[in-house]
Amino acid sequence: MAEPSLARLSALFFGFLLLLATYSWVPVLHSGFLSGTGVRKTLGPDPKPRVDHSSAKPHHPLDPLTVREIERVRTILLGHDPRFGSGSATIHSMALDEPDKTRVVQWKKGNRLPSRRAEVLALSGGQSHVIVVDLDSGRVLSDVVNPTSGYPILTMDDLTVASQVALQSIEFNRSVEARGVKLSDLVALPTFTGWYGPEEEGRRILKVQCFTSQDTPNYFMRPIEGLYATVDMDKLEVIKIVDKGPVSIPKAAGTEYRYSVLNKPVHMDRINPISIEQPDGPSFQVENGHLVKWANWVFHVKADHRSGMIISQATVRDSETGEPRSVMYKGFPSELFVPYMDPEELWYYKTYLDAGEIGLGPAAMPLVPFNDCPRNAYYIDGVFALPNGKSIVQPNMICLFERYAGDVSWRHSEILIPNADIRESRPKVTLVARMATSVGNYDYTFDWEFQTDGLIRVTVAASGMLMVKGTPYQNVDDLGDKENDSGPLISENVIGVVHDHFITFHLDMDVDGPTNNSLVKVHLEKQRVPNGKSPRKSYLKVKKYVAKTEKDAQIKLSLYDPYEFHIVNPNRKSRLGNPAGYRIIPGGNAASLLDHDDPPQTRAAFSNNQIWVTRYNRSEQFAGGVLVYQSHGDDTLQVWSDRDRSIENKDIVLWYTLGFHHIPCQEDYPVMPTVAASFELKPANFFESNPVIGVAPFLEKDLPVCTPFASS
Amino acid sequence: MAEPSLARLSALFFGFLLLLATYSWVPVLHSGFLSGTGVRKTLGPDPKPRVDHSSAKPHHPLDPLTVREIERVRTILLGHDPRFGSGSATIHSMALDEPDKTRVVQWKKGNRLPSRRAEVLALSGGQSHVIVVDLDSGRVLSDVVNPTSGYPILTMDDLTVASQVALQSIEFNRSVEARGVKLSDLVALPTFTGWYGPEEEGRRILKVQCFTSQDTPNYFMRPIEGLYATVDMDKLEVIKIVDKGPVSIPKAAGTEYRYSVLNKPVHMDRINPISIEQPDGPSFQVENGHLVKWANWVFHVKADHRSGMIISQATVRDSETGEPRSVMYKGFPSELFVPYMDPEELWYYKTYLDAGEIGLGPAAMPLVPFNDCPRNAYYIDGVFALPNGKSIVQPNMICLFERYAGDVSWRHSEILIPNADIRESRPKVTLVARMATSVGNYDYTFDWEFQTDGLIRVTVAASGMLMVKGTPYQNVDDLGDKENDSGPLISENVIGVVHDHFITFHLDMDVDGPTNNSLVKVHLEKQRVPNGKSPRKSYLKVKKYVAKTEKDAQIKLSLYDPYEFHIVNPNRKSRLGNPAGYRIIPGGNAASLLDHDDPPQTRAAFSNNQIWVTRYNRSEQFAGGVLVYQSHGDDTLQVWSDRDRSIENKDIVLWYTLGFHHIPCQEDYPVMPTVAASFELKPANFFESNPVIGVAPFLEKDLPVCTPFASS
């Protein structure tokens, strides 16, 4: 009886199945669970990688580890700690340990690469290890054990094991079957447990919750409420089963969303085929797989296990002089925080830190051509290390495309000048780098959009499935006073539990160089005009404050106390004497309202402010810490910032948290329409004047000639 | 010597030159000022209207007045008040006086139109008149004199006259010439004076400020600072000249922006031609010029003198039942407020209310094809009345187009189900209705974007020229402490004066019917968990409050006190018992910080809150009042709302103010890159489930086949 569920188990986890979904030379499976009849075969349309990764070499100091490099790190680790060979030590993440910034900045094409190093987060003998490996010398440079609280990012094995352990529990199986659920329909999903005090200390635990996939691929909408098992990952045993008794399982009807299966008439007139078309092909080049050159921008892009996608060394050409000018050294989503708002026993722990707990990279499935990205898109693969140190390629994980949405870059109509009508307008064409990750139920799409006027827009779009709660109620009227207990009723027996999303970006701004930036807070202060001085009684005056230390830069936004926030280089002045700057324009604002002494908020203390600026420190990349799983909050952005280091005229890092409160509604069922929010990095006295004033308009003769497919 | 300046004068004003810019059957010019040598000829690429407006008839109760109807109103008015014939009474605006909502809602295609009426704002004998004319009976139904403070919207004649009066002043001319400016280069621009207390009462005044157009079409960047003349528009005399002495006039170099003239190398790689392509043509129909049908949406769109563009009767088809369901009866930008932040004598009065002071319609020049709107756009003309009652057609004032930007409507990747990869993603295609208006220096683009999932996004994009101030300083270092006096130095001798933009939208939501809507404030309240009840210490709980009266709906947004705001129909419940609702999702938030007793803020009291809900009242359309020019603030949204009428389960109107603080920077010179902000109206338990779950993905075979123009 355990067989089918074991086999099913083997197919449960996003990280895990990444293995199968993708690449023909996938290494020998590292886990025994995959044998048997239930092994899933790749039937989908997933693409093959575009390049032969087996022989790929790095070309740029920031290029991610190649397949060969990953294999080499594995060999070095096997020599370092024999437990890696036996399988009792596991690699939880492996990424390029980037060279020092000064080395990278000085590096020029043609130079030898700085020595290649890897940083490995591993678990060996129940201890967390942060290991730095030098690939050139073949040596382990450092192996730090338990530098902070917390465990490394989870692996696919962790998830598999947790489910298996739970399903080996007769009591757990009995609880499932008592609800009339066949084990062959069971989806036993391990979820991250957070951290709630000393009693959870000293052991890695996962909580396994249950869904049924009977008659639907959308098991997320069919929770088996009132039951979970806590699994000790070291002892491989169930240490607690919570069974509050059966709750009605929501129906399967209405949960299907696959186009090939769904036969749902849509009352909507046909929309004629429409497309962004660029018959001459894209205008950008991707040099050696990672260095993107487009219009006046150059940047490095790569896939990343933890943050999904990293943009580095974004450099814009000065429109007047042609000089390449540094804007941002590195930008990426550093951590996410998704707390659910239900304190009861079966839900309180759901307070996810997705980047550090599971990683955005492994869950970034291949993008769907023509739908996730337009036809003119170019795709980039990701290369990752598996728990056993072997490598895996995730094809089409990132797309790059030029975007034209009918928007206007600048315009002016003028008719005040005799004998010369003026109707000037310029279309806005941008370049987008996109990655979409399905962290379990939720799908997050990350866009970095580059404008020719120097603006960078970062957009996070959320779609996918809600994490819902089973309820006995089928109608709001049945609920009485309980309506708002943890969220609204969004289908029969389904509550959409209220939750927040916070996405904190690491934005290592290097405006015109790495070492000399400052944060200027540009305050709009209301002034009262002295009586009789003017018919006006009040106005706003700009006052500028340069932040001296990190505590000056712990910033909560306020509608009624408005500031602009500029990262400037006080050593680089415009011809008028204004310091070259970039401004962060907040968007998608929500504040975390949880108490600071609440464990989830302590661990996610990076969401205590919307904006922070810290002194650059190469070890301070991940806002929730290096080791996030079951972390106590001793290695967060709040902790670093509270050191209150000087940040004036220094190498500094800007952090911005984009947030959504999410109160679900019926339209979010069974899949949510995309919700998007953006923030912007915008030049402010960086250029001497509007840098796109000389750009040409579109003329009809330059546009493509298109015919319907049918008539081609 | 007066000749050239008179001739030049005639070409000074946007409203005025509208006359010349457009249509061959433009009526006999109503003003003598246009004779002479300087009359501007239409050389530009402005299009001809697509339809023969001379014989057009209304087909829908909300269709704007036709050319014939405008002529008929003129005839009726000539009979009503002989001063209209003599030119001593002038028509300041004329628009359809829309039939009662119940009549419009009940009207079906094929029915006779409700009686056609026009509302005319006029000035006769120095008094403001609000006149309602019945076209069917040929009668004036009402003629209300001075219903509130304020004068009607300005006309092109007003602007012309003000300049002329100023230039007839020897003292004024002397001041100009003392600055070394040739009168032939002078641009004497009348600006709105605001209202600053009793001494300005009882007379219409305009203030004339000066620029030089020497060597540039961009005279806005060449202010002649320190000088203005106040003109009494009744007595046609200069009542005050302020001359603070010459200030350096900023240079012409660097101000040009016309592509045909500018020869500015741009350090940027070529971007290959790119376009939104739809070779089968658009999927929408425009019935009788105004009724748009697309996908699951039907709405009425029309050009409007005051608000530029009005969307009416937006109705979405229920995706499950096919039932057409009312969402919004009427939506439009009701008023703008643009206060400049400089209290000194030459600037304090610049606190514009553009919609009510000059109107967005006459300044909405023809859109530039391929640049203001993509190639797949369809254009709609505007028809307006001139001061003498004759009509004028503004071609291509509105465009409609389907937008595809590479964005995703919804997605989910799932690999947890054996033997079935799931990679579902749907492209987002929307329909945009766009109008762009050049209110003097600023260009505002208004987009109403309709999504198939029921969401309406309203975007305001600002571009054009800053209103700048001359200064003796050429470098920030010269300024010393004065740097922040009224704004930053953005070019030599040019200060970009700090200012705000507030755009207040009238959103007459009729969710599933006109009479039974309520505002529900959905509050996220922080709860502290009692000790020991849960390992969690805090969470957010949803509490709903139904606003009883208008004062419950005077809403200031707060990041740390979050609400959702739903307009619901409590009488229309989903199958789960949730009331059908639409949510307003704020965006582009800025609060006006001016004191409430400051005259500009009193006049623009609609910007005191970001959200308001009022009881529907057909006379309460314009948030700053019907008569806005020199208004005292006695007819604003604040005044109406303070009546505190009941708004529960009633016909209610939602008001939303989108705002920007604008601290200029060098990139804003000489033309600003577009800055955009949006708010959204989003279904919330309006549909039973995600309404676009059944929509088809894009398949390559459906996309167009395109070739470069050169190879076609």
Total strands of chain A: the figure is 33
CATH superfamily label of the domain at 295-702 in chain A? Copper amine oxidase, catalytic domain
- The CATH topology of the domain at 295-702 in chain A is Beta-galactosidase, Chain A, domain 5
Rg of chain A, Cα atoms, Å: 27 Å
Low-confidence stretches of chain A: 1-44
Biggest interchain interface, per-side counts: A-B, 222 and 223 residues
Mean pLDDT of chain A: 91
Helix content of chain A: 10-25%
What structural class is derived from the secondary structure elements of chain A?
Answer: mainly beta
Categorize the overall geometry of chain A: globular
Question: Which oligomerization state do the chains in this entry correspond to?
Answer: homodimer
User: What is the annotated CATH architecture of the domain at 295-702 in chain A?
Assistant: Distorted Sandwich
Beta-strand portion of chain A reads 35-45%
Main beta-sheet annotation of chain A: 10 strands, antiparallel
N-to-C terminal Cα separation of chain A, in Å?
Answer: 57 Å
Q: Counting H and I runs of at least 4 residues, what is the number of helices of chain A?
A: 11
Task: Please write the CATH class name of the domain at 295-702 in chain A.
Answer: Mainly Beta
